[in-house]
From TrEMBL:
This is LuxR family transcriptional regulator. SUPFAM superfamilies: C-terminal effector domain of the bipartite response regulators (SSF46894). GO terms for molecular function: DNA binding. It comes from the Bacteria. It comes from Streptomyces alboflavus. One of its GO terms (biological process) is regulation of DNA-templated transcription. Residues 1-48 form the HTH luxR-type domain. InterPro entries: Sig_transdc_resp-reg_C-effctor (IPR016032), Tscrpt_reg_LuxR_C (IPR000792), WH-like_DNA-bd_sf (IPR036388).
Length: 59
């Protein structure tokens, strides 16, 4: 997701179904408290939230 991949692209690279990826992505959004707001790009917000809370060091 941080690489800008679609759910389909993530599913293909992990050899999982797209619906499985969608469930995990939606779970991630929920855990980060990212509601569906038209002006909010949740994938970008999720990456930014991760970066804010990730331990310092190389990524």
């Amino acid at each position: 997701m941080a690489e800008g991949k679609t759910n389909r692209a993530i599913a293909d690279s992990l050899r999982l179904s797209e619906s499985t990826i969608e469930k995990h992505v939606n779970s991630t959004f929920a855990k980060l408290g990212l509601a569906e707001i038209p002006q909010l790009h949740r994938r970008v917000s999720a990456v930014l939230a991760y970066l804010r809370h990730a331990p310092p060091g190389p990524r």
